[in-house]
């Protein structure tokens, strides 16, 4: 599969739109909830960010990145049942892998109905 040809995001030079498309259905479940947990749990603070004038935006410090990555890895190892086509829990990492396989199957068979998006509770 070519990571530069996606369905949802528009094609741009050097942007893997298929990867962005695959991330989209997991964004709220993984990233948004993780960030909110870090903020609400007072695990990450303003001093874990810095501003870069040469590259506009705010960035995590090394310590902030370490806090984020530890929490992210723990989340990825968490068992979940977001996939309605299996009746057992799998880790988020395994679920993403299963979704990639589902998308591949749908593309190979040219049948979008073969792809089952995640089920958010």
Task: Describe, in plain words, how this protein is organized in 3D.
45% of the residues lie in helices and 8% in strands. It is mainly alpha-helical and 121 residues long. Helix 2 (27-40) packs across helix 3.
How confident overall, as mean pLDDT? 89
Rg over alpha carbons: 17 Å
Total strand segments: 4
Sequence of strands across the biggest β-sheet:
1-2
Q: What structural class should be given to the helix and strand makeup?
A: mainly alpha
> Based on CA inertia axes, which overall geometry fits?
flat
Q: What is the percent of helical residues?
A: 40-55%
Strand content: 5-15%
Unreliable segments (pLDDT under 50, ≥5 consecutive)?
A: none
Order of helices and strands: HHEEHEEH
> Quick one: biggest sheet?
2 strands, antiparallel
Number of DSSP helices?
A: 4
Terminal Cα span: 30 Å
Primary descriptors:
two-stranded antiparallel sheet; single chain; 121 residues; 4 strands
List the helices and strands and how they pair.
Layout: H1 17-24, H2 27-40, E1 49-51, E2 58-60, H3 62-76, E3 79-80, E4 90-91, H4 92-108
Antiparallel strand pairs: 1-2, 3-4
Helix pairs in contact: 2-3
Kindly summarize this structure in a few lines:
The chain has 121 residues and is mostly helical.
């Amino acid at each position: 599969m070519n990571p530069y040809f996606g369905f949802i995001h528009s094609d741009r030079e050097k942007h893997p739109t298929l990867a962005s498309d695959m991330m989209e259905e997991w964004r709220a479940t993984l990233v948004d909830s993780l960030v909110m947990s870090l903020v609400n749990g007072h695990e990450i603070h303003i001093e874990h960010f810095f501003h870069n004038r040469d590259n506009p935006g705010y960035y995590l410090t090394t310590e902030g990145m370490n806090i984020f990555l530890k929490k992210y890895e723990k989340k990825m190892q968490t068992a979940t049942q977001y996939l309605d086509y299996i009746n057992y829990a799998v880790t988020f990492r395994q679920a993403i892998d299963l979704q990639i396989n589902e998308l591949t199957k749908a593309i190979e068979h040219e049948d979008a109905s073969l792809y089952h998006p995640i089920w958010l509770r």
